[in-house]
Amino acid sequence: MHLEKFPNTRMFEFQNIRVLLAKLTLTIDQEVVENAKVYAKKNGRSLSSLIEGYLKALSQQEDEISDLSPKVKSLLGSVKVPADFNYKTALSDSINSKHC
């Protein structure tokens, strides 16, 4: 790949896996940034990984996430779960075990 076409991009290679990283400058309210940094630190993540996860979630096909509740949608990208995870089943199991 010719990186000269992408001046803000760096390539890293580890065990024959290439990763392209792009530097991005954002203008965000200072208070939002500070709160996000605190949140990221509490959750053992970097601010970059939080933003990357959020942008990945936004770019997914809408039909893949249309059946999720707004609260669950807001959490997309913040937790890694198996691809076959069914939150409705997990929620139902949790409620049943709590009330039975």
Tell me about this structure.
This protein is α+β, with helices and mostly antiparallel strands. It has one domain. It has helices spanning 30-42, 47-59, 62-65, 70-75, 87-99, and strands at 9-14, 17-22.
Name the average pLDDT: 79
Binned strand content: 5-15%
- Biggest sheet: strands, sense, closure? 2 strands, antiparallel
Number of helices: 5
Radius of gyration: 18 Å
Beginning-to-end CA distance, first to last residue: 58 Å
Helix content: 40-55%
Q: Any low-confidence stretches, pLDDT <50, length ≥5? A: none
Q: Per the principal axes of the C-alpha atoms, what is the gross shape?
A: extended
The class by helix and strand makeup works out as alpha+beta
* Helix and strand run: EEHHHHH
Count the strands? 2
Q: What's the domain count?
A: 1
Lateral arrangement of strands in the main beta sheet: 1-2
Provide a brief overview of the structure:
The protein has helices at residues 30-42, 47-59, 62-65, 70-75, 87-99, and strands spanning 9-14, 17-22. With 100 residues, the protein is an alpha+beta fold.
Could you give the topology of this structure?
Layout: E1 9-14, E2 17-22, H1 30-42, H2 47-59, H3 62-65, H4 70-75, H5 87-99
Antiparallel strand pairs: 1-2
List keywords for this structure.
two-stranded antiparallel ribbon; 5 helices; alpha+beta; 49% helix; 100 residues
